[in-house]
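Reviewers of the previous submission asked for a worked example of the structure-prediction workflow described in the proposal, so we include one complete record here. The input consisted solely of the amino acid sequence. No template or homolog information was supplied to the procedure at any stage.
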Amino acid sequence: MFDLAGMEQPNYPELWQCVGMIVGVYGLGYWIAASDPIRHFPIVLVGFIGKIFGPIGFAQALWSGRFTPGFGLNILFNDLIWWIPFFLILKEKWKKDKSFLR
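From that input alone, the workflow returned the following structure tokens.
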């Protein structure tokens, strides 16, 4: 991805270990939520919030010149694509139980 975006590849193995840990933990949560997304809506909500903050962080890095616009492909396929299904799940939960955020 870094090559496609015209960026230098960072050489910090600990960074990739951390990213791998986060992806693994989120993956486990999504696997649990997939069995009944309405029941496990807190996992979906946390995922949705993460998918909102990812593009915000990208925009800040783009603005500061740390990321190139080409890196936005990663945001498209890693974050933005999930907004619709997560939103629809949370909307369905809201329709069934309007007090779920209280």
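The radius of gyration is 16 Å. We consider this example representative of the routine output the project will generate in years two and three.
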